[in-house]
Amino acid sequence: MATKDLSVGKPWKVILLFALPMILSVTLQQVYNIADSMIAGRIIGPDALGAISASYPITMIYLGLATGSGVGTGVVVSRFFGMKKMKEVKTSIYTALITFIIMAIVLAVLGALTAKVFLKALSTDAKILNDASTYLVFYSVGMVFLFLYNVVTCIFQALGNSKTPLFFLVFSTTLNVILDITFALNNMGVFGIALATFIAQGIASVASLSWLLVTLRKIESEKPEIYSFQLIKNILLIAFPSMIQASIVAIGGVFVQKEVNTYGGDVTAAYGAAYKICYIVINIIFTLSNALSSYTSQNIGAGHMERVKPGLKATFIMGLIIALFFTSIFVPASRGLVNLFLDKNAVSEGSNIDFILDVGSKFLMIVTPFYVLVAVKISFDGVLKGAGDMRNFMIGTFIDLFSRVGFTFLLSRLFGLDGIWWSWPIGWILGGGAVVILYFTMRWKKINEGEPII
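^ thats the sequence. predicted structure below, dont judge the formating
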């Protein structure tokens, strides 16, 4: 495995080349969920699409916990890697793997036992409740694979290698799609869709872990510790805020989903399809932010603080280009994109495809023009997170969450579904503005230069 030193080279080029495989990776991970929904909607019917969509916000909480675990591990590992302390690099990796695998097992058991309870609490339509519960139970049991893959991926990225996890993911994504279609055509329903994802994720996580362990043996260093309580404290100091941040955003999505579910199963299906299309771009920009975090952490560790600001500027410009590009596609093609998830020949009794298309396309037309706000917020988030300024990072996140959830319930009662959709850009405006202001307090810089902070 080739590692990469992010503290040398032109900032824009270093970040871009490092981020590209990561972007491909996160896009392929999106394909998992999109393939599940698309195949369910087109082959099984809108009710199956609604069932998977209903459980989606809860799965995003799990994904947020897994992603946060990886971010905490990655920041600490990349800092030691930038300092060329390979013994500490290995000790951090072993410590993180042991900790988060145990955490994932506990969460998997709890998630499987409470799946149906959560779905009922979200006002899930009775006609899709059982299928939604089946999907969520399988996803919960696969939590170990989810945590393992995300932590291992962030470790590779922290070592400057964002290509290796991608190779495993390409294979497992392809396998997931093949299994989805095979199981759906054999009348296995939502159970088959869930089983396909479980198998594919399992293969990706085990394969990537095996390759990481082989790689670590090739890196010369003094004998590392298998577990360090001091290092797990350092990892958790970053991981917990990141887990909370990602989970809080997902929890906000749960509240939004609950409000959406009150409008019926067809609206749930429409929102689920449009939400996943929308998040393709959000996750790409978020991946740029994670690349910037690794870049920031390595450069601070290597004593190159002056490279952080050019890295931020480059990341913001790249995010802006991505935002404008996808907005120009999604707005005029919104109805056609939602239609990819549906088939008029597989219509469930009582479902209205034209209505589903109208609702889903309206969501995309309102939300996607504001991708530029996401580019602003997530770029500045990347520096705060990479520099270890988790307090200010969390403040911006909470503002985004509370404003989005609050305006969801307020505007829903005033303007119906359109009000829910408008709560998204309002949250981005308020959260993004807060993060920019907090960045310019320079607390993130003072933390790393040993200056007094407030």
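The mean pLDDT is 85.
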